Amino acid sequence: xxxxxxxxxxxxxxxxxxxxxxxxxxxxxxxxxxxxxxxxxxxxxxxxxxxxxxxxxxxxxxxxxxxxxxxxxxxxxxxxxxxxxxxxxxxxxxxxxxxxxxxxxxxxxxxxxxxxxxxxxxxxxxxxxxxxxxxxxxxxxxxxxxxxxxxxxxxxxxxxxxxx
Length: 164
Description:
alpha+beta; Alpha-Beta Plaits; three-stranded antiparallel sheet; Reverse transcriptase domain-containing protein; Retrovirus_Pol_polyprotein; DNA/RNA_pol_sf; Rev_trsase/Diguanyl_cyclase
């Protein structure tokens, strides 16, 4: 995470220090999270509307061809400003760090990310986003492929990294 520019060492005192949580993924890699339960009590949510799968499915009549693409490490696409970053400090057994990118677990982040994803695919028909996933569909292969190209072009313009 340090090499990827997601975290940075924090030497100065900060008002918040979160606990670090580790989870071993199915492939054996270790994923590091912060436990922001106390911080979440003080954060105001954006209250951006979050679509449900049912709402998306209801909007896809006559769809025959589908693709689902995923934003890689979705929340990490959101840079934190200095003040917000200092709220994400966490201790490790060796040093203290803070996040430079939005972490999983902060209650306002999914809504912020949903808003950004919606803006990215704005004015592209037959493409719906649910947090870090984008569903693209068409009634023909050609229609689907045109929409998929539009979404991929827009993602590239916005520096959104997608899973393979």
